[in-house]
Design a protein that fits this description.
The complex is a heterodimer of chains A (about 190) and B (about 190). Chain A is mainly alpha-helical and about 190 residues long. Helix content of chain A is about 65%, strand content about 5%. Chain A has helices spanning about 10-20, 25-45, 50-65, 75-95, 125-130, 135-145, 150-160, 165-185, and strands at about 100-105, 110-115. A two-stranded antiparallel ribbon of chain A has the order 1-2. In chain A, a hairpin with a 5-residue loop joins strand 1 and strand 2. Chain B has a domain at about 50-80 and about 130-185. Chain B is built from six helices and no strands. In chain B, helix 3 (about 55-75) packs antiparallel against helix 5, helix 4 (about 110-125) packs parallel to helix 6 and helix 5 runs antiparallel to helix 6 (about 160-185). The chains are: A mainly alpha (about 190), B mainly alpha (about 190). Chains A and B meet through helix 2, helix 3, helix 4, helix 5 and helix 6 of A and helix 1, helix 2, helix 4, helix 5 and helix 6 of B.
Chain lengths: ~190, ~190
């Protein structure tokens, strides 16, 4: 399950309890433990480092505001990811956050192509590049399900989609990535 | 170059997903983001209120309905050329943009876009008839109430996709309201 993917460090419950009471050093410790995982998700969903940095900061500020209401029903890592996903989706839905181009293919099917994300020269492998080139909906499910291990049901809840839609997006993502990686392999 | 085969159907069988699962979960930002987070912590109130979801959802619906009514009013209302009588002081309704609260996932970029539209809106607002201006401000008050209730519910459940959707909906309502006022050609009597 998702929460097993990342075991909390020793003493996290105590740090959460302190941070809930307003202890900034305890919250900073939680930030240090989780920032890489939050930033990783934001970077992969947003596709752009500057946006990912802003979204990561927004996520932790929102978490600080809301930590007194955190009841521990999910792990802190999952809770932070849900806040991060909402931040990404809010940005994407806003008038200034949309940057994808929509086209219609020969059969009239709606096709979406993400604007080419800023590709870091240091991007380690072509798989990351193929994920980054996916349209947002397909990318989201690959990131949440494929990389971070959330189930279809969990990912659907986080994204506000039906489970069937998530599965369809994953199928679509696989096809697109296959095409992308074949294309790169031949060049 | 990584060579992958795409024959599997689920996470365990699909080599693509298996390889995706091996990607690093943690990615270090290029620089330390903590100072930026820390600088904002003192500015935000922490939650403590408890509102029910039904209220937030109802407020969102009300905001949508009232905004639609305003649109209808802006489109059909003739422009009354009446300004305040000489020697009287017009009651200036207070205009305040919607505050989305401390739990909003709206970022600075979204609010900056709103502020750009606000510049034009303020100009146009001053030229509306008093009745229409009051209707606009009343609409904003409804959106504000919706935003307040959604924000309070978000304080209880910040990871709720539905609540965040509602909040973005309220934000869009606000932008649409400004946009309608800015673009409407009727009812632009300048008060004296």
């Amino acid at each position: 399950m998702t929460d097993l993917a990342r075991q909390p460090k020793a003493g996290e419950d105590e740090r959460i309890a302190l941070a809930r009471q307003g202890d900034v050093p305890a919250f900073e410790a939680l930030y240090r433990e989780h920032v890489g995982r939050v930033y990783g998700l934001c970077l992969r969903m947003a596709g752009e480092p500057q946006a990912a940095e802003d979204l990561t900061q927004d996520t932790f500020v929102n978490a600080w505001r809301s930590l007194p209401g955190y009841e521990g029903r999910s792990s802190l890592a999952t809770w932070l990811h849900r806040i991060a996903v909402n931040a990404v989706l809010a940005k994407r839905r806003s008038p200034v956050g949309r940057n994808e181009i929509s086209l219609t293919d020969d059969s009239g099917e709606q096709m979406e192509f993400a604007a080419e994300p800023d590709m870091d020269e240091a991007t380690p492998i072509d798989l990351e590049r193929a994920i980054a080139a996916l349209p947002p909906g397909a990318r989201d499910i690959v990131v949440l399900h494929g990389i971070y291990g959330y189930s279809h049901e969990e990912a659907a809840t986080m994204l506000g989609l039906a489970v069937g839609t998530c599965k369809a997006q994953l199928h679509r993502a696989r096809n697109l990535m296959r095409g992308r990686m074949r294309m790169e392999a031949t060049t | 170059m990584t060579t992958l085969r795409f024959t599997g159907r689920n996470r365990d069988q699909d080599p693509l997903l298996a390889q995706a699962a091996e990607l690093p979960k943690d990615v270090a930002p290029a620089h330390d983001l903590w100072p930026g987070v820390r600088a904002r912590l003192d500015e935000v109130p922490r939650q403590g209120r408890s509102f029910g979801w039904p209220m937030a959802i109802a407020a969102g619906v009300v905001a949508a309905a009232v905004s639609a009514l305003l649109t209808w009013g802006l489109m059909r209302e003739p422009a009354p050329a009446t300004g305040p009588l000489a020697g009287t002081v017009a009651a200036e309704p207070d205009f305040v943009p919607v505050n989305y609260g401390s739990n909003s996932a709206l970022g600075a970029e979204q609010l900056a876009a709103r502020d750009e539209l606000l510049v034009q809106f303020r100009r146009k607002l001053d030229r509306l008839s008093p009745q229409t201006r009051e209707a606009v401000i009343a609409n904003l008050a409804v959106i504000q109430r919706a935003a307040d209730e959604i924000d309070a519910a978000l304080a209880q459940d910040p990871a709720s996709g539905l609540l965040n959707e509602l909040l973005v909906g309220a934000y869009r309502q606000e932008l649409q309201l400004y946009s309608k006022v800015v673009t409407t050609n009727g009812d632009t009597t300048r008060r004296t």
